[in-house]
Request: fold
Amino acid sequence: MNRKRFEALVETAIDRIPAAFREAMGNVAIVIDDWPERDLMYEMYGDAETYIYGLFTGTPLPEQSVEDFGDLPAVIRIYQGPLEHDFADPAVLTRELEITLVHEIAHFMGFDEDELEDLGYD
Reply:
């Protein structure tokens, strides 16, 4: 799938996530990359062949302070290659994009895995 079509699916997924999560995204950049870096996967999982669908980097909201003013914005990276590899059907891919975005936004908001599971986004 070309990048423009994938971006359209990301936009559809953003429109489907709960309003509270969309509102929290005001200071978060969403970047679409082809694949996660092998070095990053090795660093995170000890296996360069492991891949992820998304990654939040930055300071979570609960940890931010006025001293953070001027820092780079928080970033959510969406990895097109792994998502397309595992979810060929556009409807299923859009749902997985929604789950991935909520998951990464929740990390930005300071949620833990149990809270995500309670919301149905595990």
Notes: The mean pLDDT is 85. The helical segments are 3-16, 19-24, 38-45, 80-86, 90-109, 113-118. The chain has one domain: 3-60+72-118.
